[in-house]
Give the backbone structure.
Amino acid sequence: MAQHITIRVPWHDNGWNGEVCKEPSNNNSCLRLKNIHENKNDMVEDEICGKCMAGLEDKVPCISEGAVFMSHVELCKTVIHPYKKSNPKTHGHFMETDITYPPYSLTARPFAWLMKTNIEYYSEIYNIQYNPANEPILNWETIWVQDANNHRAIFDYFYQNIIPNESLCIVYSKQVPFVEDSRRVVIGMGHIKSIVPAIEHAHTDEKPLRSLTWETMICHSIRDNHEDGFVIPYQQMMEYAEKHLEFDMKDITVFAPDDAFEEFSYATEHVGHDAVIEVIMSCIKAFQIINNCLDEDYSNVISWLNERLAETWEDRGAFPGLGAMLCAIEIPLGILIAKEIKDKIDGTDNELWSYLDSVMLKPKDYLSLELASKISPIVQKTWKGLSEERKTLFKLLSRFSLSIEQAYVLFNQNERQKFGILCTDIEIIENPYIIYEQTRLKSDNLYISVKKVDRAIFPVQSIREKYPLSEPSKLTSDNDERRVRAIAIAVLENEAEYGNTILPSTMLVNKIKELILEPECKVTMDILFAIQEFLSTEIIQRKMKDGTDYYKLVRLNKFDEIIEKRIKKRLKAEKLKVEADWRKLLDDKFDEGNETVISEDENRARVEKAAVLKELAQSRISVLVGDAGTGKTTVLSVLCSEPSIKAGGVLLLAPTGKATVRLKESMGVIGRSFEAMNIAQFLLKSKRFDKHDFRYKLSDFNYRDVPETVIIDESSMLTEEMFGALMQALKPAKRIIFVGDPNQLPPIGAGRPFVDLVYLLKENLPKNSFPKVCDCYGELTVNRRQNTEKERLDVQLSKLFTATDDYHDEDILSEINRINDNIYFEKWESREELESKLLCILTKEIGMYDVNDQERFDLSLGGHKTEYGIFFNVGCAEFADKWQILAPVRNMPQGVMNLNRLLHLKYREYYINLSKRWGKYKRIPIALGPESIVYGDKVINVINTNKDAYPKENAFNYVANGEIGIACNSFSSKKPNNYLHVEFSSQKGYTYSYDERDFSEEKGTANLELAYALTVHKSQGSQFDTVILVLAEPCRIISREMLYTALTRQTQKIIILYNKDSYHLLKYTSESYSEIAKRFTDLFADVFTEEGTDYKPQIVKVGEHFYEDRLIHRTAKGEMVRSKSEVIIANCLYYNNLEYVYEPEVVLEGKIKRPDFMIIDDDTGEKWYWEHCGMMMDPKYVKRWEDKKKFYERNGTKEGKNLIVTYDDEKGGLDSSIIDKMVKDIFDL
C-alpha cells in the first residue's frame, strides 16, 4: 500500500519555476519560514528578480525550503552543518557539502521524526531501529537527532512505503498572500517518481560524529501540462480577482483538512488516506470554479483527481483504523500487525475479521515471528473475552481513520468519561455520528470531524458491498436523520465560529448542500421539520418575526437561557441603596478640594458622570457605555472608592489579560487594591473553563468566592459562552457592571451579547435625552480627550463609524484635510511609496532627524543613552505605548508582517548581527522565533502564560495575551546571557524571560511577536499616544467596527496612510459594512415579551448580504439608511413615486457634500436636496448645522427654494403623516 506524504514549500510569485520571484520584496508570505525570514535580502533579490537561480543559489535562501520544485534545471547549494560554528568541539570537523536539487524535485525533511522526544515514541510504535546510545554526548541540549546511523534508520522507515508512480506528494504552504487565514493552503499534487536519499555532511576524520544533511529529494510528476499532477493556478486567479472584485479567492483556496493539522506540519509528514481524500475532493471543487474563470482548460486535472480519488479509496479500504484499535487493546506494534494482515489478505477471498480471529488464536501461523510475539496470552484471552457488543464497537471504530490516542479513548468507556465524551458503547454502535457530536468541542488530538465519520459510514460502493455496515449502525439512506443531524450540527458550529448563533432554515439547507460530501446529503426544510424530534437533543427550532424557521444549537441555547434568566431577575429586582453625593465625589477627584471654575463642557461631563454613577451604584446589573476618552475608568474609580462599595469588595475582570492589567492600572491607586484577572482565570477557578479544550462551560458548582461588586471591562469582546458562564458564576455578586463600547469589533466567536444587552436596555432611553441614563444603563458622551471646548477632529471622525441615529458630520474630512492637526491623511499608491511615507511619518512623529536616525529611534522606545552607546534597561517599557502602527491585515504588502519586517531590518540590523556572536564575543541572546526577535525590539506577548517575573515579589508572575513591551536588560559582556528579558508597559519595573522553548515554528505557538505594527484586532483594549493606521483597498475584512476601533486607539494623534482619497472611507459608515449587523443571534428573544417589544430575530437580505433587521434601518425600496427618521422620509418619497438618490455626492467649492436625499422633479427638472436634523438639543450639533446651512446658501441651495429641512420632534422622531403632506405640497402631488 502506497504511503502518501505532504511537503511544505514557501509562497513564490513565479510558479516555483527555478527563477527568483518577480517581485521579491513584495513576497512577505515566504517569511513565515524562519530560514527565509533570517536570511532573505530584499535588495539582493530585487536586483536578480525573475532570473534563473542557477549560479545564484547562495543569494536565495528559499531554495532549501522547496521554492524551486517546478524548476526544469538542476540547482546546487553549498551548506555547512548548523552546529559547526557554535559547537566546534563536537561539530568542527564538518565541511562544506554540496546539495543537488534535481529538476522537478521537492525537498523533504521530516522534522517531527528527527526530534528525540518524538522518535523514541515512534520507535516503540513502528519498531524503528533507533539507538539512543549512538547519539553523541554534548555539552548542551538539543532536541534533534545527530547520529547518521539513527538518521538512516529514521529515513529508511519514513520512506519505505513510498512507491514510485503510486505515492502522492501534496505540496502546501503555511502562508499565502491572498487569504487572511492561518490554515495551511494546498499548492499542488502529483506522483512521486523517485527518491534521492539524503547524503552525509562532508567531514574530516578528526572527530567520530557523522551526520546526514536531512534533505531527501523527492522527484515528482507535476508539469505545466498538468497531465500527471498540477499546481493550483493561484497567481492567475489573483489576477482574475483584481479584475472581478466580486470574486472571493477563498472560493478556490484549498485548505488542509481541519482535523489533519499534524499531517500538514513539520515540513514533511506522512498523510493518511482520509486527509488525501478530503484534499482531492476540495481540489475537484476548486478546479470546477477555476475552469469557468480562466481560459486555460483544466479538465484533465479534474479527470486525474477523480482517478486518484478512486485509487486512494481502494488503498484506504474499509478499516483504516485497525492498527490503532489493536494498539487500543494494548497490542504492541499494532500498526505493523494491521499492515501485515492487510498485505496478506489483499487480493484474496479472506474475510478480515475471520482472518483476525485466526491470527489471535495462532499468531505464529499468520505473522512474522517478531510480530507474532506481540500477541501475548493475555491479549489472546482479552480478544476471546470481548463481548459481542464490545467486538461490534471494535469493528465499527476500525472503520475510522483514528490516531492511537483517539482509538484508545473512544474504545474505553472510562477514558471517554475522563475526557467528557459522554456516550455508551451501544450509543456509538446505534449512531456512529455521535462520535463527531461528542468530540466536536474537544482539543485537536481528540476531535473527529463529521467528514471523517462520513467516510467511515459511506466509503465507496465497492467497499460497502464487500464490508457492509450492519444494523443498528447501518444508515437507512443518504439523508438518514443521524447523518442529517450531525452535518447540521457541523454547519451550525462553523457558523458559531464566525459569530452566528442561529441560522434561518433556508440558509442551513443551502449550507448543507454546499458541503463537499459523497454521497450528497439531500436535505430540505420539510425533512428538517419531519425529524425535529430527533434533532431536538442537539438542535432547536424556533420562529423568526415573520414566522419562518431558524435553528440553533442546544448547547448555545443553554448559555443564553442562563444569560436571559439572570439578567431578567436582576433587572426586575429592587434597587440597591447607596447614599452618596456623586457630583461632590467627582468634584473632589478632579479639583482636589480646590474651588475651580470649570467650562460648560466639563460641567456637562460631570453632570452625566454623576447620573451614570448613581445608576451603576443602585443597579444589580448595569451597562456602562462610552467611547475612548469619555472617562469610563474615571467613573469606575470614583464608584469603587465610595466607602460602602469598597467595603463590599471589588473584582475586576476582562476578556484578555492585557485588558485586565490596563483596567487595574487605569483606575489608579484604588485599582491596585482590587483583585483583577482575565475571565478565563476566574472561570477556571469557578469550574466553568476547560483549560484542556479551551472552552467555556456551564457547571452546577456553587462558587461563592465573589465580592459584592464585579466589573467586566472590554465587554464587546465577550462571546455568548463567556457571557453565560460569567452570569452563572457571578450569581453571588450584588452588583455586576459590564463596561465597553458597542461600536468596537464584535467578539471572535459566537454572538454579540454585549451589543444585545445594550440594545435591550436602551429601549427605555428617551431619544435626544441628556444625560443618556435610564434603568440599568449609563452612557458617557462628552469626550474630554481634548482640552478645548471644540471636539477633536479624530473623535469627530470616529463617530462617523458608530451605530447611532445621531448626525454624521461628513464635512469633517474637509476640515481634517485643511487643518492637519491631530489627524491627517497621506495617500500612497505603491508598496515603495507606502514604505517611504511610513518611514518619513515615523521620523517626523518621534522626532528623528531623518529616516536613518538610529539614535532617536532607539530613544523613542525607551533606550538610555550613555557614553558607550544606547542601552535598553528596565524602565524602557514606559515608552512602549508612545507610538504604534496599525493595519487591518497580517498579509499583503500593507500587512503587519511586512511592516514589522521593514522596521526590524532597518533599525535592528546591528542587534541581529550582534545576536549571532558566540563565545567571548557574545553580548546579547540569540535572535528568537521566525521573526528573529532581539534585544531592543518592541514585542507583544500573544499567549496567556504563567511565568516568574523578576523580581518575583509583588509581581503578577503572569503575562497576558496582548501585553506590549520592550526586550531589554539582556546586554552583558561579562556573563552568558541566554534569555531575552522583556519589560511590559502594563507591568513596569518587572521583566519576564524568554528563550527558544517559547517558540515553535510549526505549531505557531511563538509566545512573542514583533509589535512595531499590530493588527487592529490585537490592538483592541490598548491605547497609544500616536497611531499610524495603514489602509489599503480592496480589502474584504474592513468593516465599520474595525475602522471605529482603529480610530479610537490614539490618545493624541493619528495619521492614516490610505491608498485612496480620504472620502472613500465614508462608504464604511454605512450599516451595510457593519460586521455586528451581519451576525445572527436571538439573545433575549423570548424573555421580555410582556413588555410589548418583539425581540425575535429577523434575518433580511439587502444587496448581496444578510443582516439582523433590528440592527439596520431598511427602507421600502430595500436600501439602508442611517436612522428611523430617514426611513420615514425615504418611504414617503418611494410611496409617492418620487425618484430619489440617498446620500449623493455633490461637489461644492471643491468639497464633497452628501445631503441625505436628492430628488429630481421630472416635470420641472428641478433638483431638490433634503437634510434631516436630529440632536437639536446639542449646542455643538446646532452650530454645525447652522454652518452647513450657510454653506448651502452660499452655493445657491436655500431652504424653501431647493432645500427641504426637517427636524425630529420633542420625542426624537418624525410624524409620517406630516412628512407625507409636506412632500405632496412641495411636489404638487
Remarks:
- The two ends are 82 Å apart (CA to CA).
- The longest helix spans residues 273-291.
